[in-house]
């Protein structure tokens, strides 16, 4: 059974090429089927976290005293402050600016990292379909860069079914060179005969088939899930408190007239910058709500402290009188 269709947008922005901007929403194209496991206290069932500890003294270290360090030599580290790291982060543009169109077969599969489904937003149906069909006709895919969660990725934009897929790629520096591996040479160098090659070809052709990914299943995930379900029915369940958070989705870019933009793009006109819209009001309201709750909490704490102080003063006065 296929995974359910995505309903939540993880990122909103646009794909751009020439003067054309295509507002899109990014959706996760994959789902983790293996059960997610958390560390729990075997007695109470409470979640168990990781404590930051100085590995030399064994003492706990507060978050404020933790810095990031990069090892430059054996046992020698260069530390970076939060401000220095923040300054190096890529600027979020909410745009996948296609820098070139290449043939898909020219991109080695080892570069492929993580796929995302896309859907057009606003009135972008026509221009979205334009890019999808043009990529199909030319047999090419778009190469650009995207910033997701403060991290910049190389991305491939390619047609998939009725839509477009954005596949995050690994950077060239991340791909290991095969030169140092003890790999065999060609058939002649390793002594393969024509008879052996033909027998190997026959074995492959005997198993030739169409692509049916649904036939292959994660047996480990299925067995663990069955075990979990059996324990759930038996009542072997612990109550664990969950803390949920919302992820803000930035606003999308504006759509321009398609025919005019294509004409101007072919003439080499200047590209208009994608528009930005202010953050939605609910987010501000939520921030105000959090701030108000924090103020209320501080006021209650102050009132409690004042009451406790009065009680202590009364007790001391009573002792002095009795003395």
TrEMBL record:
Keyword NADP: no
Keywords, ordered alphabetically: DNA damage, DNA recombination, DNA repair, DNA-binding
Renumbered residue ranges of the record's region Disordered: 267-323
SUPFAM superfamilies assigned: SPOC domain-like
A single GO BP: DNA recombination
Molecular function in Gene Ontology: double-stranded DNA binding
Domain Ku residue range list: 58-186
InterPro entries: DNA_bd_Ku70/Ku80, Prok_Ku, SPOC-like_C_dom_sf
SMART domains: Ku78
Biased composition (Low complexity): 302-316
Keyword DNA damage: yes
Stated family: Belongs to the prokaryotic Ku family.
Role of this protein: With LigD forms a non-homologous end joining (NHEJ) DNA repair enzyme, which repairs dsDNA breaks with reduced fidelity. Binds linear dsDNA with 5'- and 3'- overhangs but not closed circular dsDNA nor ssDNA. Recruits and stimulates the ligase activity of LigD.
Subunit structure: Homodimer. Interacts with LigD.
Protein name as it appears in the record: Non-homologous end joining protein Ku
Species this chain originates from: Ramlibacter henchirensis
Encoding gene per record: ku
């Amino acid at each position: 059974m296929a995974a359910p269709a995505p309903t939540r947008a993880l990122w909103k922005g646009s794909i751009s090429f020439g003067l054309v901007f295509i507002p899109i929403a990014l959706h996760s194209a994959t789902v983790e089927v293996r059960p997610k496991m958390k560390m729990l206290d075997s007695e109470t069932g409470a979640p168990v976290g990781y404590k930051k500890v100085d590995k030399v003294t064994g003492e706990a270290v507060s978050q404020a005293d933790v810095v990031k360090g990069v090892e430059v030599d054996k046992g020698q580290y260069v530390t970076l402050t939060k401000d220095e790291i923040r300054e190096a982060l890529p600027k979020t543009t909410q745009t996948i600016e296609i820098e070139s169109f290449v043939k898909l077969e020219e991109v080695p599969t080892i570069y492929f990292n993580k796929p995302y489904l896309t859907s057009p937003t606003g009135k972008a149906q026509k221009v979205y379909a334009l890019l999808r069909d043009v990529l199909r006709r030319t047999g090419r895919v778009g190469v650009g860069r995207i910033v997701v969660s403060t991290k910049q990725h190389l991305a491939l934009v390619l047609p998939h079914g009725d839509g477009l897929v954005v596949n995050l790629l690994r950077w060239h520096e991340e791909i290991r060179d095969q030169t140092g591996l003890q790999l065999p040479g060609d058939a002649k160098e390793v002594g393969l005969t024509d008879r052996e090659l033909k027998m190997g070809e026959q074995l492959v052709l005997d198993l030739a088939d169409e692509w049916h990914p649904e036939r292959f299943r994660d047996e480990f995930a299925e067995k663990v899930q069955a075990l979990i379900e059996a324990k759930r029915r038996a009542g072997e369940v612990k109550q664990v408190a969950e803390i949920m958070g919302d992820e803000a989705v930035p606003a999308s870019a504006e759509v321009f007239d398609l025919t005019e933009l294509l004409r101007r793009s072919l003439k080499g006109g200047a590209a208009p910058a994608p528009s930005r819209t202010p953050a939605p009001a609910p987010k501000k309201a939520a921030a105000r709500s959090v701030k108000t709750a924090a103020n209320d909490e501080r006021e209650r704490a102050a009132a409690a402290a004042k009451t406790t102080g009065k009680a202590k003063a009364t007790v001391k006065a009573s002792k002095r009188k009795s003395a």
